Amino acid sequence: MILSTPFSSTARPAGAARPGRALLWLAGLLLWLGLGLARADGVLLNQLSTERVDDGLALNFSTRFELPKPVEEALAKGIPIYFSAEAAVLRNRWYWRDARVARASRSWRLAWQPLTRQYRVSTGGLNQSYESLAEAVASLRGVSGWRIAEAKELEDDGRYYLEFSYKLDTSQLPRPMQIGLGAPQGWDLKVERTLNLNPDFSAKLAP
Predict the structure, then answer these.
(1) 116 in a structural domain
(2) C-alpha span between 3 and 204 (Å, rounded)
(3) In 10 A of CB 115, how many CB atoms?
(4) What is the spatial distance between Cα 17 and Cα 10, in angstroms, rounded to a whole number?
(5) Quick check: helix, strand or coil at residue 20?
(6) How many Cβ atoms from other residues are within 10 Å of residue 47's Cβ?
(7) Which residues of the chain have pLDDT under 70?
(8) Which of 81, 83, 149, 161 could be cross-linked to 102 through a Cys-Cys bond (beta carbons 3.0 to 4.6 Å apart)?
């Protein structure tokens, strides 16, 4: 004797959704929720491009993210936080591992100044104060015209690609916090991309 189940055609009421469709809908919902969480805790890369300039190769990038609550709380307690960007230009080699021909890095220090009640962003020896946290964070979300390679490091007969990363640099937090973070929940802000460079060394992140 064959027993009917809740998923059999004889037991399904008229107009009920097919099990396959229901499962697909559920999977899509879970995926959508997962992507939403990833966006909330991560970094979206709005722009990433390179261009050949007279003195080498310049990079432009912009990101979008919000500071998680634990980071804002650390700032309010007087703990500075750091962001860093790294870019490496590599040349393809068929006979050996790819050669890194140039590498550049940049960091930003964000701190709350209780005496002036302002936020200060420091980078490359320059300091700028902001009235609000939103303005301060906006100033470190990207950069344009950043020279990451010199002209002498680029040869026109090679194939090159770019490795790029931007992150909240927890390695520069006070040591006790680094130990306490372990697997940092709410501190893991990071994005990485690899772009193939055109023969003229230009590249642009696809939308």
Answers:
(1) yes
(2) 59
(3) 5
(4) 14
(5) helix
(6) 14
(7) 1-41, 175-186, 207
(8) 149
- CA dist 199 and 84 (Å) reads 28
Does residue 37 fall inside a structural domain? Answer: no
The answer to whether residues 81 and 71 touch, using CB atoms and an 8 Å cutoff, is yes
pLDDT of residue 3: 41
Domain range for 105:
43-204
Residue 139, classed as helix, strand or coil, is helix
Tracing tokens 């990433």 back to the chain, one arrives at 48
Find residue 192's DSSP bridge partners. 165
Residue 162, token pair as written in the block: 């770019």
pLDDT of the residue at 27:
38
In a domain, 109, yes or no: yes
48 CB-near residues (< 8 Å, 6+ apart): 59, 60, 61, 164, 193, 195, 203, 204, 205
Phi and psi at 92, nearest 5°, equal -65, 135
With contact defined as beta carbons under 8 Å apart, do 121 and 110 qualify?
yes
Full-model pTM: 0.74
Rg (CA), the chain: 24
Give residue 186's pLDDT. 67
- Amino acid 49 reads S
> Looking at residue 13, what is its pLDDT?
40
Domain count, the chain: 1
Residue 101 in 3-state DSSP? strand
30-71, pLDDT tens digit by residue? 333 333 333 334 899 999 999 999 999 999 999 999 998 989
Residue 143 amino acid letter: V
Q: How far apart are CA 161 and CA 148, in angstroms?
A: 13
